[in-house]
Amino acid sequence: MIKITVFASGRGSNLQAIIDAVSSGYLPAEICLVVSDREGAEALSRADRAGITNKFIDPKSFEEQADFEAELLAELRGVGVELVVLAGFMRILSADFVGEFSNKIINIHPSLLPAFKGLEAQKQAVEYGVRYSGCTVHFVDRGIDTGPIILQAVVEVKEDDSVEDLAARILEQEHRIYPRAIKLIAEDRVKIEGGRVIIEGG
Ligand code: GRF
Fold first, then answer.
1. Separation of 118 CA from ligand 1 center, angstroms?
2. Helix 163-186 to helix 121-128 angle, to the nearest 10 degrees?
3. How high is the mean pLDDT of the chain?
4. pLDDT tens profile 113-130
5. From the candidate CATH numbers 1.10.10.10, 3.40.605.10, 3.40.50.170, 3.90.180.10, the one assigned to the domain spanning 2-194
6. What are phi and psi of 92, to 5 degrees?
7. Of residues 125, 129, 200, the one with CA closest to residue 164
8. Is 12 in the pocket of ligand 1 (CB under 6 A)?
9. Which numbered atom of ligand 1 lies nearest the CA of 16?
């Protein structure tokens, strides 16, 4: 049973998909802690409802990002976390923090990376006029949305799609592939070789 922590800043629908996958027995994981950097984030209420320890850690109460991250690290060490799952966490973690949890932090991004990195990926896709977009689960490295790719799912972009239409279609796939990626890691089937992910047993 892998011990995970989820960092989320807002709505928390990916967190919910992970909670549901654990409670259905699909995902062999224990969510030891949910952390938010935003007070009153819906993600925290979702954790509450599921009986999961959760904490709002206020970045503004620290003088520097490094102090905020030191607090995060202390929390993670306290519960013996094996995997940090970023689910709509709207804060960039420093290279030092990422180094502390090397290949143990994953993120979900609402595009087919390496296309449309950064903010508002769904809007970027609609504006560019791509025919397909999707979502990507990847390891977090020192760059932004650049780490080794674990899983992706493709969705069609329709000509009359609004950004919201596309985001909703992508979100459905996020909820499917994020628990699946964590399950693969929990089963120790995910290896990184030469910057690429190899999934053992297919
Ligand atoms: C998702 O679109 C995810 O891909 C992005 O942030 C959004 C989080 O949504 N990183 P939610 O908070 O999980 O509902």
1. 12
2. 130
3. 97
4. 999 999 999 999 999 999
5. 3.40.50.170
6. -85, 125
7. 125
8. yes
9. 13
